[in-house]
Design a protein that fits this description.
It is a single chain. With 272 residues, the protein is an alpha/beta fold. The protein contains nine helices and 17 strands. The protein has one domain: 4-Layer Sandwich (Metallo-beta-lactamase, Chain A), CATH 3.60.15.10. A nine-stranded mixed beta sheet has the order 6-5-4-3-2-1-15-16-17. Strands 7, 8, 9, 10, 11, 12, 13 and 14 form an eight-stranded mixed beta sheet that branches.
Length: 272
């Protein structure tokens, strides 16, 4: 998987102190883009990951740092609008609108895909051989979901998206091999309806994943330094924890290999 962007929230999105391009998941010939915020088109192409290779686009909720480039990626996935193809899986707020939020993907663009899945808690579907289940989240967009993806042979990946900590938040992520925590804030700086390191610690202790990657950083987190916060979590829990960087790759095989954005960097190999 490619961390095309590791920033989150309005201030980071507007300043682009970190990119907000989301995640590209690749398993065999299956390409999935998760939460394509501003920059997803540019940094997909910059990384050699053409939008025309996409088989699915997932949008967990209707905030621009998660959906902004979804329509242009749909145009790419549909072979530049020449063929109805691919899966668009998105929250009800993104597809139809909920209360005063959304929709954020036009009917025209929804008509360019072969299949639409409305993401709601416990909805399950497949993209090729990749199994996907939407999980409950609590956020200012009430339709927000997290995701659990099951990859044949290499295990499960959890992605919390933006959420508050609540009783049961960890249930769907228990035992995943890799848990991606959208962690906006550092220790001692909680923000309603988001995760800080303090809440991330509780989820890790409850879910007991094999490995954790922190991403979706806000300004306060970037000012403190995500790397130090990741070291704290690893020391507290014993679970290998990595602070994502723009352009970082994580490869799941017999081991988990974390490759930095620069080729000369030594990868971190995690037995998980």
């Amino acid at each position: 998987m490619w961390f095309l962007g590791t920033g989150g929230g309005r201030f980071v999105m507007v300043t682009q102190r970190r990119r907000t391009a989301g995640l590209r998941l690749v398993w065999g010939d299956v390409h999935i883009h998760v939460d394509p915020g501003p920059g997803a088109l540019i940094f997909s192409n910059w990384s050699g990951l053409s939008p025309q290779k996409l088989d699915a686009i997932f949008v967990t909720h209707c905030h621009p740092d998660h959906y902004c480039d979804a329509e242009v990626l749909i145009e790419g996935m549909s072979r530049v609008t020449t063929k109805r193809r691919g899966v668009l899986a998105a929250s009800r707020s993104v597809l139809q609108g909920v209360e005063d939020i959304g929709p954020s993907i036009s009917k025209y663009h929804q008509g360019l895909v072969e299949r639409i899945v409305t993401l709601e808690p416990n909805v399950s579907f497949e993209v090729g051989e990749v199994g996907v289940r939407a999980l409950r989240a609590e956020h200012s967009d009430p339709a927000t979901v997290g995701l659990r993806l099951d990859f044949p042979d290499v295990g499960s990946v959890g992605y919390t998206s933006d959420t508050a900590y609540f009783d049961g938040v960890s249930d769907g992520y228990r035992g995943v091999r890799l848990l991606i925590l959208c962690t906006m804030r550092p220790r001692g700086a909680s923000l309603p309806l988001h995760l800080s390191i303090d809440e991330a610690l509780r989820i890790m202790e409850e879910a007991k994943p094999g490995c954790v990657v922190l991403t979706h950083f806000g300004m306060k987190m970037l000012n403190v330094g995500p790397e130090g916060e990741a070291e704290y979590l690893e020391a507290e829990t014993g679970i290998p924890t990595v602070a994502a960087r723009d352009g970082m790759r994580v490869i799941l095989g017999d081991v988990i290999e974390v490759r930095g954005p620069r080729k000369r960097e030594e990868p971190r190999v995690i037995e998980a």
